[in-house]
């Protein structure tokens, strides 16, 4: 089950991954076709501003870690470590 803050983080990481794909210094030997496709995907990809607005309007779908209370964070941390 994906939690709202995990979904938020996944979108942020995906944006960062696409940005790095577009940069030949950060990811050399990537074909131009792939770089171009990453660039086109980024053109309308949600920004941090958009993500924060989504999290504010629909916290059950997307939530920033700043929105989580300390007890919830402690429980989530415990859940992650007990399975490891």
Secondary-structure blueprint of this entry?
Blueprint: H1 4-22, H2 32-43, H3 48-57, H4 70-83
Helix pairs in contact: 1-2
Commentary on this structure:
By secondary structure, the chain is mainly alpha-helical. The chain has one domain. 65% of the residues lie in helices and 0% in strands. It is flat, with a radius of gyration of 16 Å.
Task: Note the main attributes of this structure.
84 residues, flat
Put the structure in a nutshell.
The protein is mainly alpha-helical.
Helix content: 55-70%
SS element count, helices: 4
CA gyration radius, whole angstroms = 16 Å
Largest sheet: none
Order of helices and strands: HHHH
| First-last Cα distance | 17 Å
* General form: flat
**How many individual domains?**
1
Total number of strands: 0
């Amino acid at each position: 089950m994906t939690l709202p803050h995990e979904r938020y983080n996944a979108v942020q990481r995906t944006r960062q991954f696409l940005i790095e794909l577009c940069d030949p210094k950060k990811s050399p030997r990537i074909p131009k076709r792939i770089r171009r496709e990453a660039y086109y995907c980024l053109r309308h990809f949600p920004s941090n501003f958009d993500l924060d607005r989504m999290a504010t309007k629909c916290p059950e779908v997307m939530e920033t870690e700043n929105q989580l209370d300390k007890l919830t964070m402690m429980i989530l941390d415990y859940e992650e470590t007990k399975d490891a």
